[in-house]
Amino acid sequence: MRKTFRPFPGRVAERRFGDGISVLAFIVSEGMGRRKMSSFKRKAIGKQALPVYPGTRISPASNQCLITSTGISSLDDILGGGLPLSCSLVFAAPDIHSSYGDLVQKYFFAQGLANGHRICLVGKDPEGFVKDVMWYPKSHSATPSAGDSEDEEKDEEKGDESQKVKIAWRYENMKQFKTTVGNSSSEAESYCQTFELASRVPEDVINKARKADRLRFVDVGLDALSPSAVLSEITRYMESDSSAPVRICITSLGSPVWGDLTSQNIVYFLHSLRATLRKHPHACASTSLAPEVSAASWGGAGWIDKVGWVSDGALTLSAFTANPALSSMFPAQHGLLQIHTLPSPHTLSAPSDRLSTLRGLSSSGENNLAFKCTRKRLIFETLHLDVEGGTSERRTRPSGLMVDGGGAPEAGEKVAQVEGGVGVRAKKGKKRVAFDYDF
Description:
Oligomer: single chain
Number of strands: 17
Structural class: alpha/beta
Number of helices: 13
Helix content: 10-25%
Strand content: 15-25%
Mean pLDDT: 79
Low-confidence stretches: 26-33, 141-149, 159-163, 391-397, 399-424
Order of helices and strands: EEHEEHEEHEHHHHEHHEHEHEHEHEEEEE
Strand order of the largest sheet: 8-7-9-10-6-11-12-13-14
Largest sheet: 9 strands, mixed
CATH topology of the largest domain: Rossmann fold
Shape: globular
């Protein structure tokens, strides 16, 4: 009898065909199928949920990080939803005739005060700075409704009724082109409050915050503190209580009140501040540089890039007040926004690259960004020309300005330029005068 090797318990069935051909079939017994086979299972690691504080939310890019609002919804969109906790943000405003850097800091301060966050205000005369901080509209004693931002936009549009371009009636009911983003729900409204520039924070709100140790002033000029002493004050305030988010608001870093600081001192201060924030995941910082320090050539070549390397985010607000040509070309905006670096905690790339609507990186390319300050608020939006195409558009030969039978110049004609933009064409028998404007 022929023996068959059986590597597994079972039975062998042999079927014979013609010409002596046989096929052996190995049949696994039912008991083999019932055996317990080892299977790989991923070890479940219990993840501790992050405590969500008032005025914060979990980052849409990483569930290991919380974000908070800067007080400006359009700026939150540029950052990818808000400023992450344990991160620092630096604003440079090189224009000495405006103070847009400090204006952004006031929004950051007001947002923290409205949400009950703990705030450490560092700079020259903090008490005077607080008196100019914006607050809720005067007609609202509590949190404004979600439709307030839409009402503000309608009020702004009413002033431009005379400048609207008449178009075909079929397009009148179409949705208007939007250049910025806003709060579209009550949940977003509670995350980012709506403030009005014409209102001021009440004194009793400031006094209550100081009595509850939710507001700390660090006067650099009065106390003559060095940058290292300022860092020590900030660290002590962050370590005193971790039950609420801490906002570090630093104004006009590098101004004369800080002393004779060099570029190395400022870089060391910003780098040390970022390292301190990494040890306190419930804190974040927003810093505005002094106008003279915000210049690109102040600290040598690539100065602003260095600032971006030692901080999590760096933005430049370049106002048009120093350049009349840009002011006339873009009358609807007050300056340009330049992005150097953006916060990216727990991620390889900045969440803003795929989450920001204003930047537009999810479509064809990145948009140019600008900002404008209206009567009620500060807005960041995409840079665009007016409907007319700009007021300083170059027109070399406007229609209706040709004198004495004007027309297209013939080949070989020369135009003699005279002062005032008037050209006289030399031709036999006739003299033609044309106006040639060069803006």
